[in-house]
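User: Here's a protein and a ligand (coproporphyrinogen III). What would the complex look like?
Assistant: Let me lay out the input and then the predicted complex.
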Amino acid sequence: MYEKRSSSLIDTISNKNKKRIPIWLMRQAGRYLPEYRKIRDKEESFLSMCLNPKLASEITLQPLRRYDLDAAIVFSDILTIPLALGKKVEFKENIGPEIEIVRNKKEVEKLEFKRREFLEPVYETLEIVKRKKPKECALIGFAGAPFTLAAYMTQGSSERNFAKCVSFFNKEESGFLLLLDKLVDLTALHLINQIKSGAEVIQIFDSHAKIAAENNKLRDFCINPVEKIIERVRKETKNSYIICFPRNIGKNYIEYAANLELNCISLDQNVDRRWAVENIKPKNQIRCYQGNLDPKILVKGGKRMQKEIKRILKDFADVNHIFNLGHGVLKETAPENITELIKIIRDQEK
Ligand code: CP3
């Protein structure tokens, strides 16, 4: 029997050893890759790709064939949850998603999980990727946090300040909380199913948590719902690791992490790393930080990128660190810049 090589990402997140710095990138599969665009150009839509396990598994594996990465993240989208709740969602090129809007509490009350076909393909995709990926590559599943999903569902799009969402929760907070509760139920189920289908790590994206924080609602709208999800996931599964990414909440990262039993906190590019290591301490868990190269610096590449990567490695040298960006890979990124990024990190380890 051959020995199963362990994953450096699992080693780091479980505080085992630090032989190799694990690297993966949010949106590591996507439009910056020519092999992705080749599939995308033939397909009807982004959504039809997410819903086709054969294609979605192939797209998940594409960045692993090109790069020496330590994790695969399943190719899907956070907006399959509103689809599963019966809402229409369209992804418009260069505009972003358009979601059938939820206007008031009455409409929230009517929401129910009725379209399994929007969630089930991701489980099959995970099963295929698990069989095909290199053993030492960790498999990551994900979901949007309830607040970020509710923000899209009450706004209808990713309009900058989410004014309709804010006016919904100011006018009818009980309706908004009910929406968050329904999203907790379905998101927890979706994450548990992903773990049962092979995901070893899950990441919860709270991309718009800043809107809640600015309205003094971080605790009620972001922390509490994610706490319920983590509780359920831990109750129903064994040996799974949870990364949370409450993007752009600044100093509120302290309160967020202190109240959640997460395994790793993902930092956006605006977070000062030394401040983070000093101050952001997850409840009862070993400290592990993920991040946080600015995706725009990856686009530029060159000396500036090299300098910044070295700084990041130095700032996190004494803690468990998963190298990642502060947000997703931008579509104008040159694929060679990622080859360079990985080389810089691997050379530092020698
Ligand atoms: O990281 C990965 O490689 C896995 C795939 C992944 C996608 N979306 C594929 C995608 C993940 C993890 C997501 C999460 C997601 N989706 C988030 C959270 C992370 C973040 O970016 O803040 C959000 C907010 C969404 C919603 C969403 N989906 C938006 C706003 C957009 C449009 C923006 C864009 O870049 O076009 C999408 C579409 C989307 N999701 C694409 C991809 C590869 C682009 C679709 C295309 O090919 O046209």
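Summary: The pocket of coproporphyrinogen III is lined by residues 26-31, 40, 46, 73, 75, 77-79, 91, 93, 96-97, 142, 158, 205, 207, 328 (CB under 6 Å).
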